[in-house]
Amino acid sequence: KEDPINLISPDLIGASVISNNGKNIGTLVDMMSLPAHDVYVISNSNNKEVLIPVVPEFIESVDYDSQNVIISPIEGLF
Question: Which CATH superfamily is domain 4-71 in?
């Protein structure tokens, strides 16, 4: 796994966010730095924004070349 500390980059805006079981979650539209940790702002198919903490428990991998972010599903969000 990559270190999530290095996963905050403007190059990721527009990346597809996909669960580790292959479900399309949405598009990465923004990033925010909060006191506890950084978060990804994901716009889902209903145009609702979901915040995903950028921590190893949720972010499995990031592929800059294919513009894909793979996440572990978060109970109750998806």
Answer: PRC-barrel domain (2.30.30.240)
